[in-house]
Design brief:
Layout lengths: L13 H24 L2 H15 L8 H25 L3 H17 L5 H19 L7 H21 L9 H17 L6 H24 L9 H23 L12 H22 L8 H18 L9 H31 L13 H15 L5 H23 L5 H10 L4 H29 L3 H21 L2 H19 L6 H23 L3 H29 L7 H25 L8 H29 L18 H30 L11 H17 L2 H42 L1
Helix pairs in contact: 1-2, 1-6, 1-17, 2-5, 2-6, 3-5, 3-6, 4-5, 4-14, 5-15, 7-8, 7-9, 7-10, 8-9, 9-12, 9-22, 10-11, 10-12, 11-12, 12-24, 13-21, 14-15, 14-19, 15-19, 16-18, 16-19, 17-18, 20-21, 20-22, 20-23, 20-25, 21-22, 22-25, 23-24, 23-25, 24-25
């Protein structure tokens, strides 16, 4: 009979090193407080403070950024311990304070990934003082314990086995960015042998990143924003690779094009931005030059609008399409690179270019209003999580205070440890936690009964127990972590006040109450969880983004009754941001289910790509207006349509495709939210394409500026249609896989 082997995934032994740090620091600080200071309050806060700093949080980024994050957590911990102790004397005050502070800590995760990563540790640092009543005179002793824990813990995480960049998501993403930059460098060289080698290297690097993302475990506390950014980064790099392959065709430099120099600068700017993104992912402080990317594309668009008039009158439609094709693809590469830069900055812990705060008062107020619209609503996963978590913790604190239970803070910790975004997930976690706690009591009893009150043996066992308690939940299971943590608690309290293994029974009673609170709150506030909200947000994001694309396209062509593109863009942006948030929560929920998140990640990324297509066309019109071809007061006609005569005439050929494309993406979202059949991709319309190219050719022959520029804008819009139509088959496959996974999970 073959005995099943435990499969442990710990690349680079990162989790083992973190657990070893905790096993060294936590017992040492506990020993200093218990044996030297001889104050129980100090000992408890030294032990749990060490656990908060060393186990419950793991900040990434450069050493300076990590140090700043840990110091900020330490300062916040001091404030939380003082406030919690001051509120601990009254059950109603303690519960109210827990609700307010809990909501603030949980909701702060929307600010950036570091706030999100610190939420569990910060809540523990408030739960412990507020759930255990103590007079004001206990504050210095409590702060002394936490000071020992924070000081030693920060030194340990910065100096003892600091994280290395090898074999990580960041290093793989950096290599992929560099490989694509190398490919971009020779995009126009015409050297097929070198190009094929670099294409192969780029494909290998992008595939390695996707494989690494799949192999990276998502912790039960939930991924931070950088982790979710890696999901989008892997997908966007794949699409950029295909776009670069498209401009490195076999014709090389002999392929006719109108803006060779400008296209070359656009690709060079993209390569430079990719290299800077790679450096950022590798822990350096490089800042990608987004301005160069924008200037290069603007110069390319302006040159294209000027040189199209120089085409020979007898140029046929196919030659015209060939001459303009590389410029269109260069523009797509520019926008894809910008998204990669944004994802790379977020993944490295920095704000995205679009989220950098401004100094203008009006802009700041607008940003605050936009933030409120995105997150202070029932569709925001952060808002719902924060409300639910604050309510659950407040109820747990009140019960802990009123019940008079021994070690009542375990009621709150039990609530915190299993509180998830849906009742089903909470119920499953409760069973795991109870089983783990029971197993821990049995193991602890097996240790404590033979040992009795021998303090020397207990001190010798404590580091080993801490090592297992810190390591097990990361690489084994949540239940194993609960069991190991129970053993640690049994040993700690038997060192402080020997009571034998029976303290474990007290803990299981308290924790079970906390589990019941967690389940009840989950049933009341969010019984369906993030999976359902994710599907709803996918549908909303695709619908709003498709509306925005249609609005910008119709404004560009001057046909149809286009809605306000600015309002449509704001609405689409809000929907995509809410989708990103719910996707991050979805990853956290599914971490224990061995589900493949890649298909869902690609569907989520697709909504952002539709949004960027609309932004690209809106920017195109703005850039075309900047070169002086039309005055500001002539920018629109009386009905809000553009003044380009060629756009209105040539736009007729793509009106039907615009509406068909919008309908397809709306239907895609509906199929995901309702679990229906994913729509089939649309076939291209060859007649419409021929009509458009014929219209452009006639505009070239006419020699009229407004005809030429308008026709070019419509041709660019048609190119965006082609890109989004090509995306349909890819998204259709991924959506079908995602719906199938959800059906299998949810029955």
């Amino acid at each position: 009979m073959k005995v099943p082997r435990l499969k442990i995934s710990d690349p680079g032994l990162t989790s083992l090193k973190g657990a070893a740090r905790a096993a060294i620091v936590m017992p040492a600080m506990f020993a200093l407080a218990d044996q030297v200071i001889k104050q129980p309050q100090t000992a408890i806060f030294a032990a749990f403070g060490s656990f908060a700093v060393l186990v419950l949080v793991d900040f990434g980024g450069s050493p300076r950024t990590r140090l700043t994050a840990y110091l900020s957590l330490a300062v916040a911990g001091v404030v939380l311990i003082v406030a919690g102790t001051l509120c601990s004397g009254n059950a109603w005050l303690a519960a109210g304070a827990m609700a307010v502070v809990g909501f603030g800590i949980l909701f702060s995760g929307v600010i950036n990934g570091y706030f999100g990563a610190a939420t569990t540790a910060a809540i523990l640092l408030f739960v412990l003082p507020v759930a255990v009543p103590a007079p004001v005179s206990a504050i210095p002793w409590r702060l002394a314990g936490f000071g020992l824990a924070a000081g030693a813990g920060i030194c340990a995480v910065m100096l003892l086995w600091p994280p290395r960049r090898q074999a990580t998501l960041s290093s793989d993403a950096a290599r992929a960015c560099l490989a694509l930059a190398d490919l971009a460098d020779i995009a126009f060289s015409g050297d097929q042998q070198a190009t094929e080698a670099r294409v192969a290297a780029a494909r290998e690097a992008v595939a390695a990143l996707a494989s690494r993302f799949q192999a990276t475990p998502h912790q039960p506390t939930g991924p931070t924003r950088p982790t979710a950014a890696f999901a989008g980064l892997a997908d966007e790099l794949r699409w950029l690779l295909e776009s670069l392959v498209g401009v490195t065709g076999p014709a090389g430099p002999a392929e006719p094009e109108l803006c060779r120099e400008e296209n070359g600068e656009t690709i060079a700017a993209a390569a430079a931005a990719l290299r800077a993104s790679a450096a950022r992912l590798a822990g350096q402080s490089d800042v990608p030059d987004i301005g160069r990317l924008e200037q290069a594309q603007e110069a390319m668009v302006q040159a294209l609008t000027q040189r199209i008039s120089q085409l020979p009158p007898d140029a046929d439609e196919h030659a015209l399409d060939s001459m303009l094709g590389r410029s269109f693809r260069s523009g797509a590469i520019s926008y894809s690179t910008r998204q990669i830069v944004s994802d790379a900055l977020i993944a490295s812990g920095a704000p995205a270019p679009d989220s950098v705060p401004t100094t203008s008062g009006g802009d700041t107020l607008l940003a605050v209003r936009q933030f409120a619209v995105e997150h202070a609503s029932a569709r925001s996963v952060w808002f719902r999580n924060s409300i639910r978590g604050a309510a659950g913790l407040a109820v747990a604190v009140f019960i802990a205070q009123k019940s008079g239970l021994q070690h009542s803070f375990w009621v709150v910790l039990g609530t915190l440890s299993v509180l998830r975004s849906n009742a089903l997930g909470t119920g499953r976690t409760i069973l795991s936690a109870l089983a783990g706690t029971a197993a821990g009591i049995l193991v602890g009893a097996a240790i404590l009964i033979p040992v009795g009150g021998n303090q020397t043996v207990l001190w010798a066992i404590l580091p080993v127990a801490v090592l297992i308690a810190a390591y097990a939940p990361r690489v084994v299971s949540f239940a194993a972590g609960q069991a190991a943590f129970t053993v640690v608690i049994l040993i700690l309290f038997n060192i402080i006040q020997p009571v034998g293994w029976k303290v474990g029974l007290i803990r299981i009673e308290d924790v079970a109450i906390g589990f019941a609170v967690s389940l009840g709150v989950g049933l009341v506030f969010w019984p369906r969880g993030a999976a359902r909200l994710l599907r709803e947000n996918i549908a909303a994001a695709y619908s709003r983004s498709a509306d925005y694309f249609a609005a910008t396209a119709e404004r560009l062509t001057g046909n149809g009754q286009a809605s306000d593109p600015v309002h449509a863009g704001d609405t689409a942006t809000t929907a995509v941001h809410q989708l990103d948030d719910s996707f991050r929560q979805y990853l956290a929920e599914r971490s224990a289910k061995r589900a493949d998140p890649e298909s869902v990640a690609r569907v989520v990324a697709g909504a952002g790509r539709v949004l960027r297509a609309g932004r690209s066309m809106a920017a195109l019109e703005q850039m075309a207006a900047l070169d002086g071809a039309r005055a500001v007061d002539q920018a629109t006609g009386g009905d809000g349509s553009p003044a380009w005569s060629g756009a209105a005439r040539c736009g007729v050929s793509i009106d039907r495709e615009i509406q068909a494309l919008r309908s397809w993406y709306v239907t895609l979202g509906d199929s995901i939210v309702n679990g229906t059949t994913v729509p089939r991709p649309q076939p291209p319309d060859p007649d419409g394409r021929r009509q458009l190219l014929q219209c452009v050719r006639e505009a070239v022959v006419s020699g009229e500026d407004s005809e030429l520029r308008g026709a070019l804008l419509v041709l660019w819009a048609s190119h965006h249609l082609d890109v989004l139509r090509h995306l349909e088959s890819h998204l259709g496959r991924q959506a079908a896989a995602a719906v199938g996974q959800e059906e299998s999970v949810n029955g």
